[in-house]
Specification:
With about 250 residues, this protein is of the alpha/beta class. It has one domain: NAD(P)-binding Rossmann-like Domain (Rossmann fold). About 45% of the residues lie in helices and about 15% in strands. The chain contains eight helices and seven strands. The chain has helices at about 10-20, 35-45, 60-70, 95-120, 140-160, 180-195, 195-205, 215-225; strands at about 1-5, 25-30, 50-55, 75-80, 125-130, 165-175, 240. A seven-stranded parallel beta sheet has the order 3-2-1-4-5-6-7, with helices on both faces. The longest helix is centred in the middle third of the chain and has 29 residues, at about 95-120. The chain is globular and about 55 Å long.
């Protein structure tokens, strides 16, 4: 199987790549950072994994089309993500649009590009990396929350449209994961809320979670692996929530 992972050089993306490579799949790490891609591919190859890299801009249709033509993708992991924290009235319109392009339109267009090949081979798995913010909201994250909420509806439609062959699409929604993206959010939220970074972690990020812990990238990777296994072949259009009990309240 060939597995394409967007945002493949990041914390979650690389953990997923390592998991699939360890299971014997060929992983293609997609990102905009060529140096980071080269380093991550080398790391996987040093571990005995079959890995390649592709420069991919998920906001550019030509880049998406070229990538889909280059590889026969069996499993697509839509993981690329960015964040911007600000009140809506202070949110730059171009930044708001960028977040939607990266985390909603990009996954849709990439899925659109790989679906014909999946249908032709009668096999396809799409894993969207969502967020707890696909289910709940937080202040100052209007674009991110809107994009992640939209991802759930998009996934349900694609599941219905492709229920006639061996295909599934699901969304993994973790609570906060300690990645560089979240580290940046801690500093940004400290500024918005006039708190220390430790207070942001304790009072905002982990406060709603009964288990009071960040989600591990290994948990997300293993969940993605399960969703692509034979045991999960009839799990589709679903939202798998890794939130330490957050949404039980």
């Amino acid at each position: 199987m060939q597995v394409l992972i967007t945002g493949g050089s990041g914390g979650i993306g690389f953990a997923i790549a390592r998991h699939f490579a360890g299971a014997g799949h060929k992983v293609i790490l997609a990102d905009l950072n060529q140096q980071a891609l080269a380093e991550k591919v080398a790391a996987l190859q040093a571990e005995g994994g079959n890995a390649a890299a592709v420069l991919l801009d998920v906001t550019d249709l030509a880049s998406i089309t070229q990538c889909a033509a280059q590889y026969a993708i069996d499993i697509l992991v839509n993981n690329a993500g960015i964040q911007h924290v600000a009140r809506l009235e202070d949110f730059p319109p171009e930044k708001w649009q960028q977040l939607l392009n990266v985390m909603l339109t990009g996954p849709a267009m990439l899925s659109r590009a790989v679906l014909p090949g999946m249908r032709e081979r009668n096999f396809g798995r799409i894993i969207n990396i969502g967020s707890i913010h696909a289910l709940v909201a937080s202040p100052f994250k209007s674009a991110y929350v809107a994009a992640k909420h939209g991802l759930l509806g998009f996934s349900k439609v694609v599941a219905l449209e492709n229920a006639d062959f061996n295909f599934s699409i699901n969304t993994i929604c973790p609570a906060y994961v300690k990645t560089p993206l979240v580290e940046q959010q801690i500093a940004a939220q400290a500024k918005e809320h006039n708190l220390t970074e430790l207070q942001v972690i304790e009072q905002i990020m982990l406060a709603p979670m009964p288990q009071k812990a960040f989600i591990g990238v290994d948990e997300i990777a293993a969940t993605a692996g399960f969703l692509c296994s034979d045991a999960a072949r009839h799990i589709t259009a679903q939202t798998l929530v890794l939130d330490g009990g957050w949404t039980a309240r």
